[in-house]
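TA notes, week 10

Several of you asked for a full example with nothing omitted. So below is the full record: structure tokens for the whole chain, then the designed sequence directly under it. When grading your own attempts, check the secondary structure regions first.
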């Protein structure tokens, strides 16, 4: 992916982050950034130039609360997919 496409993707990622954070704050849900998102925030003061996703961690009860909310309150702006659930972790995808 060339630089311009990655820059556009990071703009979309930032909008998704803002949506995610607003929902978490509305529901009083604890979250943290992880992986490349954390590294980018610390080392690059933003996104890692080649990273193309956003990584968050949530306690399981808060994750379950978030999933219930997103299923019940479909956004017209974002698509929610609860793509995989494993005993210790899960993947939540929010697409723009």
């Amino acid at each position: 992916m060339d630089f311009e496409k990655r820059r556009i993707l990071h703009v979309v990622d930032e909008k998704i982050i803002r949506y995610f954070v607003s929902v978490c704050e509305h529901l009083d849900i604890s979250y943290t950034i992880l992986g490349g998102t954390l590294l980018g925030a610390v080392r690059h003061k933003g996104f890692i130039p080649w990273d193309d996703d956003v990584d968050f961690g949530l306690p399981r009860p808060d994750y379950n609360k978030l999933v219930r909310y997103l299923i019940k309150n479909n956004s017209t702006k974002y698509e929610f997919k609860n793509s995989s659930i494993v005993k210790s972790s899960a993947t939540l995808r929010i697409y723009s």
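The chain is about 50% helix and 20% strand. Use that as a sanity check on your answer.
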